[in-house]
Amino acid sequence: MDGLKDILHRKLKHERAALLWKAEGLGERDLRLPRTVTGTNLLGLIKHCLAVEHGYFVDSFGRASELTLPEIDFDKDPNGDFYATPEERAEDLIDLYRAVAVEVDRAIDETPLDAPGHVAWWGERGGTTLGYVLVHVLADITRHAGHADILREGIDGRAGLLGEGPNLWEPDGGWDTHVLRLTAIAEGFSPQ
After folding, report:
1. Which of 60, 68, 69, 88 lies in disulfide reach of 117, CB 3.0 to 4.6 Å?
2. CATH topology for 4-163?
3. What InterPro entries does the record tag this protein with (predicted)?
4. What is d(CA 86, CA 157) in angstroms, rounded to the nearest whole number?
């Protein structure tokens, strides 16, 4: 049986792959275009997640890194990691996330769950362990992969965990009929 660290690490890799899959085949505009009232967009989710993974698993455990991450002035723009600047290209950020993943995977493989670390941006409560960070980051990446699911479905209808096989089964009558049926159910609860 796999150890807890292996299970959590495998799940992190899976969620990361799902997030990156949501960007496949899309151009700069579709990746950058805000899709919610708060400006959430696919490329911004990728930029945020690469910074999260690197910050928690590399920086917080004092590991050396050859990678150059985007500089973000959070005092100037607290949401600066949730969108790509005009100078940042989608292909470069996606490639950077893949490079971050290599460093992060190595860090997780080489570090025991009880290894101490320090998350600087947590202030006085910054003392932590790899195990805690692994659970914390897994929850964050999973949440954003879910955001990406919805965003991608809204762009071109592509849905599911990964592109390698169906994990959503089209209902009898197709999706349009299904949506109409669900809408009719919801409308039955309209205020009187």
Report:
1. 60
2. Four Helix Bundle (Hemerythrin (Met), subunit A) (1.20.120)
3. DinB/YfiT-like, MST-like
4. 27
